Amino acid sequence: MKAxxxxxxxxxxxxxxxxxxIKDAADAVVRVDAVTICGTDLHIIKGDVPEVTPGRIxxxxxxxxxxxxxxxxRTVRPGDRVLVSCISACGRCRFCRENRYGQCRGGGxxxxxxxxxxxxxxxxxxxxxxxxxxxxxxTVDSKDAVLLxxxxxxxxEVGVLNGKVQPGDTVVVVGAGxxxxxxxxxxxxxxxxxxxxxxxxxxxxxxxxxxxxDAVAHAEEGPELLVExxxxxxxxxxxxxxxxxxxxxxxxxxxxxPGGRVANVGVHGKPAALHLxxxxxxxxxxxxxxxxxxxxxxxLQMMAAGRLPSSSLVTHHFELGRMEEAYDVxxxxxxxxxxxxxxxxxxxxxxxxxxxx
Length: 357
Description:
The protein has helices at residues 39-46, 94-97, 129-132, 142-145, 151-161, 178-187, 202-211, 223-230, 246-255, 276-279, 296-304, 323-331, 333-336, and strands spanning 2-8, 11-16, 28-36, 56-57, 62-69, 81-84, 123-126, 133-135, 170-174, 194-199, 215-218, 236-241, 256-264, 285-287, 314-319, 340-344. By secondary structure, the chain is an alpha/beta fold. Strands 3, 5, 6, 7, 8, 15 and 16 form a 7-stranded mixed beta sheet that branches. The chain has a 6-stranded parallel beta sheet with strand order 11-10-9-12-13-14, with helices on both faces.
């Protein structure tokens, strides 16, 4: 089969690799019909995630068809169309029993495209299939469903729920990429009083407005002053960091009100300064986290009911063999306007609109 293989920082190739096999009775092999690229994949290629070693197939988000299931798999069977979650869960360790699947100590957690071969391939082996695959209803299109593999549960759990968004809150989302936009969409479940989006790209600020932001601010044009003006000098109740850079994290801590909450979602590859000399007296709560995906069934129900604006996040479509081109478009989002790219085979219902440029 073909797959995107990581060979070291700034080195990847779409190449022939062996087909995956069942290695454990809890495994399933899935044919990939729709797959996407995550900002975390870009961090890996930059060398920010040293645990990813040369030779690894990248990717941790997909929709496909079960081709083979191990003897212990009970919830899916060959022929089922499924969502491949970015998080695998053994279901037995302490953290899995607490629904904290991202911290699984039984061989799961974020392993696909990280510690084992991932989804940016024609086929993928999925461990712990009973908890790591979600059967999909026919009413949910593959190119929409693939957004439930990572960005929607990440935004909802690590941003909105960790940030404890409440009715009437002023919420600032720093970074209007896929995660930031999904944060805006899911924060609206809780009727915040105002959502403000901050980004460098005008195209992403426009997307933020379209998906529900009440105000937007260019990151280099005084977003902190805007937040101060809109909150009578108090600051925001919740600030979500959705970039993963020292500068944006520090910006978030400057925009939060006393007693407010900063929810860090971004993947950081460099140290960020924590100015406790200013924060210690403000009763500020700062949360971090890796998605657990316990909310995926709920979000799938919301998508099936038409309550998630998923299609508006997908800006580019490619056939699977154009993986390297798709990476190039996604990595130059400021110039290409890319928000989320989806790749797949038209005959498998992954694509229904023209391909990207």
